[in-house]
Structures are given as C-alpha cells and as structure tokens.
Amino acid sequence: xxxxxxxxxxxxxxxxxxxxxxxxxxxxxxxxxxxxxxxxxxxxxxxxxxxxxxxxxxxxxxxxxxxxxxxxxxxxxxxxxxxxxxxxxxxxxxxxxxxxxxxxxxxxxxxxxxxxxxxxxxxxxxxxxxxxxxxxxxxxxxxxxxxxxxxxxxxxxxxxxxxxxxxxxxxxxxxxxxxxxxxxxxxxxxxxxxxxxxxxxxxxxxxxxxxxxxxxxxxxxxxxxxxxxxxxxxxxxxxxxxxxxxxxxxxxxxxxxxxxxxxxxxxxxxxxxxxxxxxxxxxxxxxxxxxxxxxxxxxxxxxxxxxxxxxxxxxxxxxxxxxxxxxxxxxxxxxxxxxxxxxxxxxxxxxxxxxxxxxxxxxxxxxxxxxxxxxxxxxxxxxxxxxxxxxxxxxxxxxxxxxxxxxxxxxxxxxxxxxxxxxxxxxxxxxxxxxxxxxxxxxxxxxxxxxxxxxxxxxxxxxxxxxxxxxxxxxxxxxxxxx
Length: 483
Hints:
Elements: H1 3-18, H2 22-42, H3 45-78, H4 81-115, H5 122-151, E1 156-160, E2 163-164, E3 179-183, H6 186-190, H7 195-224, H8 228-263, H9 265-272, E4 283-290, E5 295-301, H10 304-310, H11 331-361, H12 370-381, H13 384-401, E6 404-406, E7 410-411, H14 422-453, H15 466-482
Helix pairs in contact: 1-3, 1-14, 2-3, 2-5, 2-7, 3-4, 3-8, 3-14, 4-5, 5-7, 7-8, 7-12, 7-13, 8-11, 9-11, 9-13, 11-13
C-alpha cells in the first residue's frame, strides 16, 4: 500500500479508537448532572451514591479519552503537513477556542468533581459537575466546527503566494502547495452550512452512548440480583435520557441528511446508492451496490428519497453520474455504513421505548419473569449500539467527503507530508495498534473491576461531609412534615 492509504488507515484507526471515549464522557456528564440534581432535591443517600459511582466510571473514560486523543494532534504535523499548512488559520482559531472555552473549563472543575466529595459543600460540587459537563460539550463543539468546515468551507479566502485571491478562487493542483485558507469571518466559519446540524447529531449520539452504558450496567446488576435499588434507580434515569435522545437523534439525523442533500450531493448519492440523476428515486432500506453494473439492489421504498429531498416523488435527485468518477466516494462502504447507522438508530428507539413501556406497566423490575430477564440481556448488549452507530456515522461522513480532504478545495492526496514514507507510516501504525490494544485492555480491566465492586451501600454515609449529612436529615424532616 502507498503512503496515502496507510496514512488514511492510521488516522482512521486512531480517531476511531479515541472516539469510543468522548461520547461516553459527554453522555455520562449529562447523567451525573441529573443524578446530583436529584440528590440536591431529595437528599436521598441513594442518589448521592449513584452520583459517586458513575463519577468513577466517568473519570475512567475521561482519562483514556485524553490519553488516546493526543496522538491525532501529532499526526497532523507528521503525516498531513501540507493539509495542516493549508488549514492552519482555520484550525488554529477553532482549536484555540476549544482550549479557552472547553479544556480549561472542564479540567478546572474536574478535580472538584472527582475528589471533592468530602471537601466541598453539595452545591459547589453540583456546580463543578455542571461545569465539567458543559466543558465536555464545548470541546465537542469546536472539534465538530473544525471538521464541518472541511465538509462545507465558509468564511474564508484563499491566499496564494502571499496575496488574497478573489472570492470563488479554487487553487488547482499546481497552486495548492502555495495556497492556504485564511479566515476573514470567524463566525461564518463557526456557523458554516453543516456545523450546527452535525453538532446536534453528534451530541445527541453522545447522550445515547452515556445513557446506554448506564442502562447496560444497571441491567447487569438486576439480572444478577445485586444492588437492586441502586440499579433500578439508575436504569430509570438511563431509560429517560435514552428515550428522549433516541427520538432527538432521529430528528437531528433527518436535518443533517437534508444538509447533505443541499451541500454535498455526491455524498448523498453514495449514501443511497443513486447512480442516475432522475425523479421518483426510491429510498433504500438495505441492499447491495453493484459497482460493475452501476446499480443498487435491495429492499426499498419507491419514490421515498425524492419525496424526502423535495416533498414530491417528482423531485429530481442528483446521482453519481453528475460527477466525474474520479470524484466519487467509495460507494459500497459509504452505503453500507450509512444504512447500518440507521438500522441501529431505529433499534435503539425500540429498545428505549420498550423499556419505558415495561416501566409504565410495572413489569420492568420483575426479575422472576423470563421475558423480562431476556430483555435485561438485550439491555446489557445495548451499550454496543450507540458506539457502533457513532462510528458508522463518522465513517459515513468522512468517507463520503472523499476524495476531498477539504471539500472541493484540496484533495486528500494533496494533503500528505512530502518526507514521510510508507514504511514509516506502517511501522507507526503497528506500534499504535499495540499501544491502543493495551489501553483498551486496561480500560476493560478497570471498568470490570468497578462494575464487580459496585456502588456504596445506602447505609455507608460516613464519607459524606457534615453539611451533606445535615442536608439529608433536613430533607427527611421536610418529607415527614409534608406527609
């Protein structure tokens, strides 16, 4: 394999591994805010212990996420030097904003969240939890903004040999190495045509990842008959977040797909396997792309894609024939990954709302019922759903942009470093694979230990500071007076 393919594989591998953890941190951050808010409202020791337990899981995912994410920053300089020079002004702005608005906010309050349980008051600790949650979200904001600019560039001018070129100038192959994108409108760059749609879709996917992790571990405890009260309360919160997030994901996904239709028609054509520009185009449910015959076969809904694109089955959908074949994405992988993401998303809606129905009917916590126990197994495995869907969606977005590293401006092959060889990339890829395998093993080992140990018992309140215990007693007194 040549240096371009190896560099793409290496970056895809490192970012895919890293992307296992930030969604969990962001989603768990929301869960922690809810649990600690309920602790402040009710004063019940169970919510205190729930918040403490899930904070330990949060700390683990946060640590592995930080460790695995550092590598990518160096890859921009080692493997993609030409690209980094071209987008340096854009990415410098976005990543500087991430450092100021996200990293310092998140890391500044992280120590209080993790270690301040018996050192600060409950309200200050809750405030720290909220700030860490917001910091994690802000971090995602600026990363998605930078990546979305690659999909739909806006708010920039092209500087060629030190001179700002007229609007609409696109450097050709001979000019690209002497060109760079210069931001002239920061907010137009931030609110580029795809950034807000992709941001909402990404964040809701993170909420799902955190919620289904809570659901999975809680169902495991219920199936084993351990920590029943804790698991039941955690499962209720996880299901509420998952039920809302699953429907929001459907809405934000539809909005994001609408943006792709307008801004990246070649990607849409690859996602749905549309080769001919025509009206009355079906929407594929599942199928196979025959690249030799240039056709897609499988289960489909007639005319539905045209209807979704333009509100009528007579709407003409742009096919891949409208673009040079050299500019086509890898159609088969994009098509399959896109439909895998949708299938998992629909399954997660069904799982979350079936859980809500069972809860409403009073059956969810009847562990003696074999059907409920079978559902617990589904819930335990459901933790994989958001992770696979998030990865499939990310790969759909990135592979669908190819062969452009910056859409319609810079090809991926033009972004490579000139001095890096294929052997060097291969050697580092093997090294990263080994290191990341060790990191993943450590993560699984520590996560398993925390799950096996379980939460603190409700009677174990001596670790709480006096102010926290006083709040519990005050809440109990208020409840007795009201009752």
